[in-house]
Amino acid sequence: MTHHQSHKVDAVEICGHQAFVYEQERQRNPPRWSRATRCWRKPEVVWIKPPAAEEEFKQATFAMAA
């Protein structure tokens, strides 16, 4: 999937198709697959450096006080 596709609605459709194809291949040739197939769901949120739980609380408190 390209960067452009991942930011469009196409991403959900592409991931669904990939999951279908991989599962089909796994059923067709089980000895090739030692584990389950990859999870093709698109993540809801992605962080490079997630904020600390304490930091989130301080920001929320500050926003309410303002």
Question: Beta-sheet strand percentage?
Answer: under 5%
* Helical percentage: 40-55%
Radius of gyration from the alpha-carbon trace, in angstroms: 19 Å
Low-pLDDT segments, ≥5 res: none
**Number of DSSP strands?**
0
Largest sheet: none
Element-level helix/strand string: HHH
- Helix tally? 3
Report the span from N to C terminus. 43 Å
Coarse shape? flat
Mean pLDDT: 75
Number of domains: 1
Explain how this protein is built:
- The structure is a single chain.
- This protein has 66 residues and is mostly helical.
- It has one domain.
- Helices cover 55% and strands 0% of the residues.
- The protein has three helices and no strands.
- The protein is flat and about 50 Å long.
- The mean pLDDT is 75.
Write the layout of secondary structure elements.
Layout: H1 3-6, H2 10-28, H3 53-65
Key features of this structure:
single chain; mainly alpha; 3 helices; flat
Summarize the structure.
With 66 residues, this protein is mainly alpha-helical. The chain has helices spanning 3-6, 10-28, 53-65.
